[in-house]
Amino acid sequence: MKFNCMRSDLSKAVSNVSRAVSSKSSQPALEGVLIKAYDNILSLTGYDLEIGITTDIEASVEENGEVVVSAKLLSDILRNLPEEIVRIETDERLITTINSGTSEYQIVGISSAEYPELPRVEELEEIKIDAPVLKDMIRETVFAVSDNFSKPIYTGSLFDIEPGVLRIVAVDGFRMAIREEQVECELTTKFVVPSKTQQEIIRLISNEEKVEIIVGSRHIAFKIEKYTIISRLIEGTFLDYKTTVPSKCTTEFKINKRILSSAVERMLPMTGEKIQSPVRANVTPDEIKLSCTTSVGKATDSIMISAIGQEVVIGFNNRYMLDALKNADTDEVKIEMSGSLSPIIIKPVEGNAFLYLVVPMRLSAEA
């Protein structure tokens, strides 16, 4: 294998596909990037048996070939080369020589035969969505994905597609996030995409083009600009989220999310990783009184509001509430409650673009 290419193009491509490379694996090839040079195209792949990222860049290929090289080592070398043109060649012993300007490196490669083949996504359905829309939908829900692998189905988000509508739903047992957008699609389907895959989608989207989503029976592919992400789908039965949202509320009010966020943040000094104490909210028709009492002290604050319905005293995890408010894509939100033991709902004043649900925490007796 022998080729020349632009160092910046290769460095960027290696950096991006390396995000799917295993940091530590019993298979050394999985810690590397697969490089294929054919017909003036350089194909690069990273794969950890769960998620794969591939891309092609232009190159001047003198000899076709394939090799696997350490992702970290190659990335470090490319980042520090002195010139923009890089020349790479591999001999019959898989010794890979990298030249740029006066610099030369020789690193040991691995046969491409030892690299596992990426899954083939047998296309059952195809969806196209505007890249910025998908990026926002994922970013505003993925924070609520569970990190508890005892229930693998919740370590991903549900993509629930109905004719003209896409919903992304994430839940971790303590909160739920739902984002909805109108899309040009006549399909009806559901699938669960791992959190890691979604994080990589966010990182790779950088323009206004459409993302092509190819759905298979066990795997899914996202085509983003010059990159393709191939991921397994999580199997299992996802929560029936529509029945989880309370159908009626007994207390509701509208509020600027920044005002509420600031007040909740002022409770943070009383809590920490070792101190998990709820924020107490006493909601009356014209005021929310917030308080947080822990072993280190007590904080109180209040916000003027105009609430409709019953007075309620409810406890909540301040960080879960802040996550929801931070990701709400409007300045003003509507808060709905159905008593002290039902989830708090955060939604837009108009429409149903998002819905965040925060499960209440039990309160101790307090004056």
Tell me what the structure shows:
- By secondary structure, the chain is an alpha+beta fold.
- Helices cover 17% and strands 43% of the residues.
- It contains seven helices and 26 strands.
- It has helices at residues 7-17, 71-80, 131-139, 195-204, 241-244, 257-265, 318-327, and strands spanning 2-6, 32-38, 41-47, 51-58, 60-63, 65-70, 85-90, 95-100, 103-108, 125-130, 156-162, 165-171, 175-182, 189-194, 210-215, 219-224, 227-232, 251-256, 279-284, 287-294, 297-304, 308-309, 312-316, 332-337, 344-348, 354-358.
- The strands form four sheets. A nine-stranded antiparallel beta sheet has the order 14-11-12-13-26-25-24-18-22. The protein has an eight-stranded antiparallel beta sheet with strand order 6-2-3-4-17-16-15-10.
- Strand 2 (32-38) and strand 3 (41-47) form a beta hairpin.
- Helix 6 runs antiparallel to helix 7.
- The longest helix is centred in the first third of the chain and has 11 residues, at 7-17.
- The radius of gyration is 25 Å and the shape is elongated.
- The chain starts with a strand and ends in a 9-residue tail after the last strand.
How big is the Rg? 25 Å
Question: Which strand order does the major sheet show?
Answer: 14-11-12-13-26-25-24-18-22
Q: Overall mean pLDDT score?
A: 94
The low-confidence parts are none
**Number of helix segments?**
7
| Shape assignment | elongated
Quick one: how many beta strands? 26
Main sheet? 9 strands, antiparallel
Structural class by SSE content: alpha+beta
Q: In percent terms, what proportion of residues is strand? A: 35-45%
Helix content: 10-25%
